[in-house]
C-alpha cells in the first residue's frame, strides 16, 4: 500500500483528502507540524506528497526547494492559486505535478496513480535515492551535489550499501551481509567485511557525510 502525506493547513480539506485517498486504497496521513515540515516529511518516508502552497512558517514552494536538496520523493502541488507563474515556479523548484482547487477528485487520483507509476518505473531502472544522493547500483556510482559529482564504489561496497539501504531503519546482522555478498558471488571472510564497512564510512566522510553506518555491538549495522 502506497503512503501519501498530505501537507495542507486547512483541516477540512485535509480530512476530505485523507478519506478520498484511503477509500482509493492508499495509506494517507496528515502533516501537523508545519514548523518542522521538512524533517517531518523525511521522517514519515512517504511515497508521494500532496503539498499546498499556502502553509504556515514556510510557503510550499520554499518547502519544496528545501526538500529537493534531501529527497526525490514525488510531489504534487495542490493550491487555490490559478496562476501560470505559480505553476512554472513550482515546477522549477522540483514539483512533479500541479493541480488547482477546487480539483476534480477523479483527476487528482489519476495524476497520483500516474506519478506513482513513473516513480516505480524509475526505481525499476535501478536508480534510488538516499540523503539527496542518487544511487546507481549497476554502475557502482553514487551521484551527489545535485548530480554534479560522483563517488565510485567497488562491487562489494555497493552490495553492502544496497543491502543496508533496502533494510534501512533496522539492524542488519553481519551474517545477513555475508549472505548477500555470497548471493552475489562475492566470497568475503569476516575480516574483509569489516574492511569494506570501514571503507564505505571513509568514502562518505570524504564527501562530508558523517555517521552513515552505525555499529550496534553484538548485533550488526544500521544505515542512518
UniProtKB/TrEMBL annotation:
Residues within the DNA-binding region(s): 125-224
Domain (Response regulatory): residue spans on this chain: 3-116
CDD domains assigned: trans_reg_C
Record's keyword annotation contains Cell inner membrane: no
Residue ranges of domain OmpR/PhoB-type in the record: 125-224
Pfam name, any one: Response_reg
Residues that span the membrane, as ranges: none
UniProt entry keywords in alphabetical sequence: DNA-binding, Phosphoprotein, Transcription, Transcription regulation
SMART domains in the cross-refs: REC, Trans_reg_C
Residue(s) carrying 4-aspartylphosphate: 52
Job of this protein: May play the central regulatory role in sporulation. It may be an element of the effector pathway responsible for the activation of sporulation genes in response to nutritional stress. Spo0A may act in concert with spo0H (a sigma factor) to control the expression of some genes that are critical to the sporulation process.
Record-given protein name: Stage 0 sporulation protein A homolog
Amino acid at each position: 500500500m502506497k503512503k501519501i502525506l498530505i501537507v495542507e493547513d486547512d483541516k477540512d480539506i485535509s480530512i476530505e483528502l485523507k478519506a478520498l485517498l484511503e477509500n482509493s486504497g492508499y495509506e494517507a496521513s496528515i502533516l501537523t507540524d508545519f514548523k518542522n515540515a521538512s524533517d517531518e516529511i523525511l521522517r514519515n518516508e512517504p511515497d508521494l506528497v500532496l503539498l499546498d502552497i499556502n502553509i504556515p512558517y514556510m510557503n510550499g514552494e520554499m518547502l519544496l526547494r528545501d526538500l529537493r536538496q534531501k529527497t526525490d520523493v514525488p510531489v504534487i502541488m495542490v493550491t487555490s492559486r490559478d496562476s501560470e507563474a505559480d505553476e512554472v515556479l513550482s515546477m522549477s523548484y522540483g514539483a512533479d505535478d500541479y493541480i488547482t482547487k477546487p480539483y476534480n477528485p477523479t483527476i487528482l487520483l489519476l495524476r497520483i496513480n500516474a506519478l506513482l507509476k513513473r516513480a516505480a518505473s524509475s526505481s525499476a531502472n535501478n536508480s534510488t535515492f538516499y540523503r539527496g544522493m542518487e544511487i546507481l547500483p549497476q554502475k557502482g556510482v553514487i551521484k551527489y551535489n545535485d548530480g554534479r559529482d560522483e563517488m565510485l564504489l567497488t562491487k562489494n561496497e555497493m552490495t553492502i550499501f544496497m543491502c543496508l539501504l533496502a533494510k534501512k531503519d533496522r539492524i542488519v546482522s553481519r551474517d545477513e551481509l555475508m549472505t548477500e555478498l555470497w548471493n552475489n558471488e562475492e566470497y568475503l571472510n569476516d575480516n574483509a567485511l569489516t574492511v569494506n564497512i570501514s571503507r564505505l564510512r571513509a568514502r562518505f566522510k570524504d564527501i562530508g557525510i558523517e555517521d552513515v553506518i552505525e555499529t550496534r555491538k553484538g548485533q550488526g549495522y544500521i544505515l542512518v
